[in-house]
Amino acid sequence: MSYFDDRVVLITGAGHGIGQAAAKRLATAGARLALADIDHDSVEQVTAGLNEGQGKVFELDVTRPDQVQTTVDAVVQSFGRLTDLVNCAGGVSGLAHPHRRSIESLPLEEWDAAFDLNVKSVFLCSRAAVPALRAAGGGAIVNVSSSAARQGSVQAGPAYVASKAAVIGLTRQMASSLARYRIRVNAIAPGGTESERFLRAMADRSAEDVAAGLSRIPLGRHGYPADMAAAIQFLLSDDSAYITGCTLDVNGGIWFA
User: Residue 255 domain-assigned?
Assistant: First the structure.
């Protein structure tokens, strides 16, 4: 019997990139999945490859408290419990928007949008999920930060870097306060990952610029969503039973803790 056979995992941002890869990997491991995304059609496609009854789609704007609570309640009603949460929803990186890269040119509303999508969403989803995780006897939360939070980024911009750094701080605080309930809280900090959004942003760059970027990564390649999904599975699993408050760097060696 797989460890995940009796787990019910809510994944936000499950329709694309890391969230989609995590859903596929955890499905293979036997988990039942609540797949949430603001893009209903994309997340609906993810369920097409799952076993009957293994996954259920929830259309969710993770910045809306009412929608978050309603979704968590619906997950518990549908599956009978909730044991784990993966906070993958996020964005507003600035990779394809040069004006987002400068303090001087960054619009205030985009600063607020980055914190809403990257930090407020983690707070709202975790706050709503914790009572269900406590009722299940404990569980795990994995948040998605970024290597940009570790070392800064000229390309990503201040709002993205600051908000992803806040995710690391929130992860540590939640880990400290929720350990008594047997709820572990960890994060991953991905390097550049070949999601759809990342590849679109990279499409306008010259081959020379791409090669120069890759030359700075010791392992010589960008990450794949599957790399991040493997790290997420590890942090959810019993293999990491004595790990909490950790941010796991999954970046090909571009930054060392």
Answer: no
Task: Domain of residue 106: give its range.
Answer: 3-250
CATH number of domain containing 79:
3.40.50.720
Active site residue 160: yes
Claim: this prediction has a pTM higher than 0.85: yes
Burial track 41-50 (b if 16+ CB lie within 10 A, e otherwise)? ebbeebbeeb
Query: Does residue 51 lie in a domain region?
Result: yes
Residue at 257 is within a domain: no
Q: How many distinct structural domains can be found in the chain?
A: 1
Tokens of 144: 């998605």
Nearest partner of 173 among 139, 132, 123, 239, judged by Cα: 123
Which helix (H) or strand (E) segment is 69 a member of? helix 65-79
Distance of CA 208 to the CA centre of its chain: 30
Q: Residue-wise pLDDT tens for the chain (257 aa)?
A: 689 999 999 999 999 999 999 999 999 999 999 999 999 888 898 888 788 889 999 999 999 999 999 999 999 999 999 999 999 999 875 555 666 667 888 889 889 999 999 999 999 999 999 999 999 999 999 999 999 899 887 778 899 999 999 999 999 999 999 999 999 999 999 987 777 776 676 667 777 777 777 778 788 888 899 999 999 999 999 999 999 999 999 998 887 75
**Three-class SS of 229-240:** HHHHHHHHCHHH
Residue 256 lies in a domain: no
Task: Select which of 160, 181, 224, 242 is catalytic.
Answer: 160
